[in-house]
Amino acid sequence: MSTPSDLSRPLPVPTPETSHFWAGTRAGELRLQRCRACDVPYFPPRPFCPRCGGRDIEIVVASGRATLASYVISHLPAPGFDPPYAIALVELEEGPRMLTNIVDCPQTPEDLQLDMALVVTFAERTAEITLPYFRPDEG
User: Does 134 score more than 70 pLDDT?
Assistant: First the structure.
């Protein structure tokens, strides 16, 4: 699957809690939040630490590296997607997991290997929304 380019794909609506994340993707960065009390990075964005409940939060730039934790290959059409396409759960090098799509890779079980090394890539969809995808890490 190449990076989806069909603008019929539903897009997220930024909120005050997620604005740093979407500003980061527009800048080509994957931004996480990290709790200063327990030093745990987390995703998705929220105003408190999911581990300790702390509210002393900082924004950090993630490495962009991840591994494929799980996926399902959908053969059903959906707005903005041409089947088959993988709906993937990736584990970021920093620890949090996120749902995404795998691009620049055949969407087959032979090519989508669990624990394979991935790297983030970004696709501008609108002036406000740039989506993060992951592709195999060739380096």
Answer: yes
